[in-house]
């Protein structure tokens, strides 16, 4: 059996040097791992650890003012696969969600159990072409020619995401857009660059649930790229699901 450390709260967040110092006592985690741990500091700070390493890490975190629980990995809720939509509308009783194929579902607001939203960073591999110089040889000697070559490069892109979790199937409905796409709210297409309109949508989503059933970005109305990866975004949701279950 392996274990995870789940924080009691996201703050305080230690600095890298302090975290590196306490990791000396955890055999399965190196000082170099500290950057990744801090990047994904969204409630579940480490998983897949032996009970001995989990206790050592917990003790070290406590010296930094970070309290945590040790939880078996298989007791942390998994997230459902998402049902993707592109249009969202809200009224006094219902949440209406529509797919790209114009399939529409009306969900009662009373079905909603958790809401998450925020800007997420995503690294993508993209192909491009560039002119390079290639050396060729003949019996008369060497010469160069320009050659178009295909290259692969990593491109950082932000995107905005909403995840709504319901008591009844489909349990997880998501909407997502980047700079080249839109989602529609109230018959109005929203674009990533228009952060004011995103804030309005997030304000309206806030009204659907109490704060302990919303992720950090939604609670704080953050339209900055708060999450460095989808993994971090989803880990926070899993962490909050566990806390909600622990509270009964």
| Proportion of beta-strand residues | 35-45%
For the CA atoms, what is the radius of gyration? 23 Å
Q: Please state how the strands of the largest beta sheet are arranged side by side.
A: 7-6-5-11-12
Strand segment tally: 12
**Uncertain residue segments:** none
Number of helices: 6
SSE string, helices as H and strands as E? EHHEHEEEEEEEEEEHHH
Quick recap:
The chain is an alpha+beta fold and 248 residues long. It has 6 helices and 12 strands. The chain is flat, with a radius of gyration of 23 Å.
Task: Give a quick set of tags describing it.
single chain; 6 helices; alpha+beta; 40% strand; 3 domains; 4-stranded mixed sheet; 25% helix; 248 residues; Ribosomal Protein L30, Chain: A
Structure commentary:
This protein is of the alpha+beta class. The protein folds into three domains: 3-75, Ribosomal Protein L30, Chain: A; 83-123 and 155-246, no CATH class; 127-154. The chain contains six helices and twelve strands. The chain has helices spanning 16-23, 34-39, 51-63, 195-206, 216-220, 230-246, and strands at 3-7, 44-49, 68-72, 83-85, 87-90, 94-98, 104-108, 112-138, 141-166, 172-177, 183-185, 188-190. The chain has a five-stranded mixed sheet with strand order 7-6-5-11-12, covered by helices on one side. A four-stranded mixed sheet has the order 4-10-9-8. The protein has a three-stranded antiparallel sheet with strand order 2-1-3. A hairpin with a 2-residue loop joins strand 11 (183-185) and strand 12. The radius of gyration is 23 Å and the shape is flat. It starts with a strand and ends with a helix.
